[in-house]
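Reminder: ligand-aware prediction takes two inputs, not one.
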Amino acid sequence: MARVNEHYLKLKSSYLFSEIARRVRDFQAAHPEARIIRLGIGDVTRPLPPAVVRALHEAVDEMARAESFRGYGPETGYDFLTSLVAEHDYGALGVSVAPDEIFVSDGAKQDSGNIQEIFAPDCVVALTDPVYPVYLDSNVMAGRAGVLDDTGRYDRVAYLPCVAENGFRPPLPDRRVDLVYLCFPNNPTGAVLERDALRAWVEWARQHEAVLLFDAAYEAYIREPGVPHSIYEIEGAREVAVEFRSFSKSAGFTGTRCAFTVVPKEVAGRGPDGARVALNPLWFRRQSTKFNGVPYIVQKGAAAVYADEGRRQVRELIDFYMDNARIIRDGLEAAGLTVHGGRNAPYIWVKTPPGLSSWDFFDLLLTEAHVVGTPGSGFGPSGEGYFRLTGFGRREDTEEAVARIKTRLPR
Ligand code: MLT
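Here is what comes back for the chain with D-malate:
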């Protein structure tokens, strides 16, 4: 019989959002009359922007005609999209990224989960704690994390606690690490890294020859001026950083699937002989072997967000979700809860009421208020005592969820 990958057996029993979905399903089955409001997984609820929908329709029509039909596309994305990304996402920030440093994909989740494949199995990984579970689980699967101890930590992973005392900004590692995952604006805490803090990370990575894996999937939510939207706004970052971006949370592509990863030509690791090895060709090799590109139709839809009409509609979507975030923040603060995030990110990071763990609060809100959030401890040990709500819900659901939570809080 085939032996399984033993590292999968070291994973916590289920993926966080699957576990939540299971608990909600069980509750709904037992209480079919309950109208459950889901503010757990960060999934968008507004329809695609009309400019995107039009572009999708036009692309479908192209695929219906012999003269404009397309089969396999370029593995790393069509030029029409990578050149728009280079110009609008980077050129507009004064940052130079070439189209052949941009790899279009079907999701930042996939890319941030797959990127570890191009690094050695014994690389030491540092993660913020709490963290988006994909970064950790993909390294557990690859055998890089070691053994889970009874504090809920893997013994080969460097955890960087992001807590209220440090403003949810990760401290620099105090031991040698090779790879650091950073996500800013942060999922789950909603915190941002200001320019000085990001500069300190880039300088540290250059000094220690580490690679920063920077997830900027929520950059469109940054409201405060001066907060970097891309790590490449920091001098020297092209030598040490890979950046992940996504159309999911900005243009509503969670179900449509389009994202991109930037791997600058300068960023490198070391081969077994100690020689520098550029990551860009390695990632190209990986993607061209295991991935056949995002559908032409979808890339056409994504390209539409860069024209005036598309940009305006995307801004409206983001404004809508940020208004939800404000409604949640203001409502829960008024109810006496301590609330973080929701200012430059769609996530609200709520301190649980005294005496209630993250899962206690999850159960209380599910059973009493029929509201689903995400227990902070699901994102890591430092998330214990917190609870995440998203601004991605429908407006009336968001308002009702806040009203229901207020009346169900322990007195
Ligand atoms: C989340 O809720 O953390 C995100 O929706 C998950 C994701 O983007 O994959």
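Residues 41-43, 109, 132, 187 surround D-malate (CB under 6 Å). Residues 6-47+309-408 form a domain with the Aspartate Aminotransferase, domain 1 fold (CATH 3.90.1150.10). We will return to this case in the review session.
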